[in-house]
Amino acid sequence: MHVILIPGFWLDGDSWAPVTRALRDAGHTAHPLTLPGLRRRDTNRATVTLADHIAAVVAVVDALTHVEADGSENGDEDERPTPRIALVAHSGGGPIAHAVADARPTCLARIVHVDTVPLPNGMPINAELPTTDGEIPLPDWSAFDDEDLVDMTAELRSWFQEIAIPQPALIATTPQSLSTPARFSVPATVICCEFPADQVREWMSEGAPFATELAQLTDLELVDLPTGHWPQFTKPTELSNAIITALHRT
């Protein structure tokens, strides 16, 4: 299966390195993405929009869809099998993945949300993060909740600070724009790290605003992986196994 890896805030495609290796070892074709404005620190990212990030992922989905269609032995385009493409998204990448599902619902076999959930129409990813000149630097650790930082050792924190790239502010502050009901039918797995799956189920049943989209998914599984907000750093083997298991269910 083609697996497109979407990083969270302040991270590029290399942040998925342990997961990328595990996916390839398991026989999948991994595509770790570095989204617009995240390639270098010394770039003007103030004008990079949420739509730009969504379009970047959609472009990869479209390219892989054409590759699979070209390789099909069936000459009837209408009867070609659905492409085997999955998205794996961390943190702020989750709403981007969901927007891709809104744009290309029939092209996706599954979305794996890593400590994130799909946000509803009209809700921004995180409009409360402090911005400077159109970008969001990685905040001081004191800005994060204790649950975020579980298993984040001093060494991991120092390394994260070294590799972190400021996030384009418009990615965090622009409201989500969704319109295609078919997005709800894309199978989804949520890997729950900061908060257990039972807590997520409670938020869904209570109608928590950020969980309303999640509650409407028709094929959803919640998987516990207790650690902090960055399991690709703190529990890379366990995260890789959870992702591969989810893909095998597809």
UniProtKB/TrEMBL annotation:
Keyword Heme in record: no
Highest taxon of the lineage: Bacteria
Keywords assigned: Hydrolase
InterPro entries assigned: AB_hydrolase_1 (IPR000073), AB_hydrolase_fold (IPR029058), Carboxylesterase_BioH (IPR050228)
Occurrences of domain AB hydrolase-1 (ranges): 3-239
Alphabetized GO MF terms: hydrolase activity
Name of the protein in question: Alpha/beta hydrolase family protein
Organism: Salinibacterium amurskyense
